[in-house]
Amino acid sequence: MSHAIAAAADLNAPPVTKILAEFVSSHPSQGWAPEVDHEAHRTFLNWLGCAIGAANHESVESSLAAIREFQPAPQASILGRKDKVDMGGAALINGISSHTFDFDDTHLKTVIHPAGPVASAILALGEHTNVNGRQIIDSLVLGIDVACRVGNAMYPDHYHRGWHITGSTGMLGSAAACSRLMGLDLQKTTMALGIAASQPVGMREQFGTMTKPFHPGGAARAGQLSALLAKHGFTSSPKALEAGRGYMQTVSTKCDWSEIDRALGKSFEISLNTYKPFACGIVIHPAIDACAQLRAQGVKAEDVERIELRAHPLVLELTGKKTPKDGLEGKFSVYHGCAVGLIFGQAGEGEYADDIVNRPDVVALRAKVNATTDTSISEASVDVKAFLKNGKEVHIFVKNAIGSVENPMTDTHLEQKFTSLTEPVIGKEKTIQLISALWKLGQASDLRQILSLCTPD
User: At the top level of CATH, which class does the domain 282-398 belong to?
Assistant: First the structure.
């Protein structure tokens, strides 16, 4: 971009950084409908369950070992463990654990997993600064709104360029939420967003490795640090998001500025949040749903001659691993998703264990799945035909998979998912108490009771 073009782009852009900073710093507490507040509680509960569930995963062990090299002060808790580290380290590790199973929330309009960067940052900061539950919920709603509105403005170009949009917008959501939690004014919140804008985290090349869940953790820590720097007078460009050589115009050719302030403060992106019934990439969910429906209709793996699957091109672009070698790769294999959907009728974390990915019957069924692309089918849908050895054909079309906005998981579904994740880590009694406490988080006077329930006995 030439100097003249950059200057013109700069002049045409609205003051996005200031608009979002003013919104975050001045919007009233609980300034939204009860339905939005309830969705925030659903989001936090789902996020916390995912983080606790992966507490003993090797990615958490590795990241915790690395953080200990810094000899951190014990400021904040590692969820699902008895360890405490500094609040930046806790934001990083809890962000990693919450995304390790790929079971966390999804803002489908942008495929952002918004809670990981935001909730991980504010819980660690909030524990250290002794905030109440209402402050956590307020910060969560506003931080997610910032990340997703910026994502709306850049998606899909930014994502198609190779950015992992959860990390590359999450640092903004984290900075906004932490600024709100500390009560920073307009000027300092503007600076916090500007500092965060220089720290986008994550490339899609890392999908299928431990570095993918590093992205929300890294974004959580980056945003938290940005807000702390701003609190103490550190400065940045007040146009860091919108300037011609600022964040948004650098990382995306699409910058739909209208997405930033459309119904700002009246509608909230957290209302569009969804929760995964399956522990894998969201674009696989329709295929798993379809194959689980085949199973429910009596189709057995040993009866299948072949499965023909038609899906949007993005499905194969993101999850086209035909022969995954381990659980992390399996989460990016629509073929594996089809196989476990038909064999088990579900696709929780257990179905992505390394031994299941390499089990002979799973491998054999995976090889019978033939996936082709069809641009007439939306990213949220799939067309599946099972051709059986007896000559019969069974057809399933899924328009919107369970867990989508159109076919959402209920509160009961979320509690069941939460229980399956947390009970093996913290036990049955603490899980029951924790669920009850999380539904009332907005009324909690502090975080101590909730955090005491997040550790194993």
Answer: alpha beta
Residue with tokens 């011609």: 244
Please, what sign has the CA dihedral across residues 444, 448, 451, 453?
Answer: negative
Q: List the pLDDT tens digit at each of the 457 positions of the chain.
A: 444 444 445 668 999 999 999 999 999 999 999 999 999 999 999 999 999 999 999 999 999 999 999 999 999 999 999 999 999 999 999 999 999 999 999 999 999 999 999 999 999 999 999 999 999 999 999 999 999 999 999 999 999 999 999 999 999 999 999 999 999 999 999 999 999 999 999 999 999 899 999 999 999 999 999 999 999 999 999 999 999 999 999 999 999 999 999 999 999 999 999 999 999 989 999 999 999 999 999 999 999 999 999 999 999 999 999 999 999 899 999 999 999 999 999 999 999 999 999 999 999 999 999 999 999 999 999 999 999 999 999 999 999 999 999 999 999 999 999 999 999 999 999 999 999 999 999 999 999 999 999 999 9
On whether the pTM is more than 0.90, the answer is yes
Annotated domain spans of the chain: 3-274, 282-398
Asked if CATH classification 1.10.4100.10 holds for the domain at 3-274, the reply, yes or no, is yes
List Cβ neighbours of 298 (8 Å cut-off, separation of 6 or more). Answer: none
